[in-house]
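PROTEIN DESIGN WORKSHEET
SECTION A - STRUCTURE
LENGTH: 251
TOKENS:
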């Protein structure tokens, strides 16, 4: 049976790579993000191989989330797979120098955004007694690192919410999983360093970072296990990275 997946943060990085591998495997797509042109060009490309619709909204804006999801065309209303992926780090300061707007952005997008989207989609999964939610956490949600503070806190929250969802949704036959990547070479560092591309590039220099496609491939593996199999929690590092603070550069 053809499945429908709802992917937040599909305009870039892990979300975009996930959309691409899902499309190749004939999964119908609801692609979400704020950047309209990117949504349109991805829709144009992937529509050649699967059915695609797009929703432009900011996950941190509660009204926008609910209006967008309610506006889905009838034939896209039954969502089988939710990929809670939208998120970013904003800033890289120690706690005493942190920017409060950055803190708000990370809590609002990474935590509240994930909750708003889930809240809008879970009722129909409960009604259908089926569904799969994949929460994209981070190794930053398992282990803190210097200057990670609020980003780490937001991902610790994703880790806790993933476990909570699995408990609360257990009676409804809904699978819930989290994937926690280490360093993945995407636009993530560009956002964290506020458009400073040179600084962003140094993060992934002198070692082989994970690629967005590596994580997308794992997401696809997780969602294609038989229905009685739920891979609850996966931590994925590049080989060169041993922890959030130990990275073997110049091997
Ligand atoms: P990117 O910056 O490449 O992608 C982030 C995506 O999130 C974009 O599609 C962006 O879309 C979307 N997004 C950000 N803010 C909002 C918002 N307010 N409303 C809606 N969409 C939003 O980064 P990644 O692909 O690396 O990140 C994806 C997820 O993976 C994040 O949750 C991140 O924390 C996590 N992660 C990343 C790691 C890494 O090293 N890269 C490692 C571990 C976890 P748009 O701007 O169009 O709205
Ligand atoms: C992204 C990976 O190590 O920059 O979550 O926090 S890290």
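SECTION B - SEQUENCE
RESIDUE ASSIGNMENT:
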């Amino acid at each position: 049976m053809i499945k429908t997946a709802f992917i937040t943060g599909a305009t870039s990085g892990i979300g975009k790579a996930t959309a691409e591998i899902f499309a190749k495997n004939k999964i119908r797509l609801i692609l979400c993000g704020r950047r309209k042109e990117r949504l349109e060009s991805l829709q144009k490309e992937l529509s050649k191989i699967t059915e695609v619709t797009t929703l432009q909204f900011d996950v941190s804006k509660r009204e926008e989330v609910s209006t967008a999801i309610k506006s889905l065309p009838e034939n896209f209303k039954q969502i089988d797979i939710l990929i809670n992926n939208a998120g970013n780090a904003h800033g890289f300061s120690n706690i005493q120098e942190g920017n409060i707007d950055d803190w708000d952005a990370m809590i609002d997008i990474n935590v509240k955004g994930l909750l708003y989207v889930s809240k809008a989609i879970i009722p129909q999964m409960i009604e259908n007694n089926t569904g799969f939610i994949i929460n994209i956490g981070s190794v930053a949600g398992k282990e803190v690192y210097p200057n990670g503070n609020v980003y780490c806190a937001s991902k610790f929250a994703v880790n806790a919410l993933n476990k909570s969802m699995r408990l609360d949704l257990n009676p409804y036959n809904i699978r819930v999983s989290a994937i926690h990547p280490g360093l993945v070479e995407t636009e993530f560092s560009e956002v964290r360093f506020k458009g400073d591309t040179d600084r962003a590039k140094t993060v992934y220099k002198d070692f082989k970072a994970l690629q967005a496609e590596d994580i997308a491939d794992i997401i696809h593996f997780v969602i294609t296990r038989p229905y009685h199999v739920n891979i609850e929690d996966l931590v994925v590092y590049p080989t060169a990275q041993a922890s959030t603070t130990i990275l073997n550069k110049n091997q």
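SECTION C - NOTES
The mean pLDDT is 98.
Helices lie at 13-24, 36-46, 62-70, 100-128, 149-168, 188-192, 197-203, 212-223.
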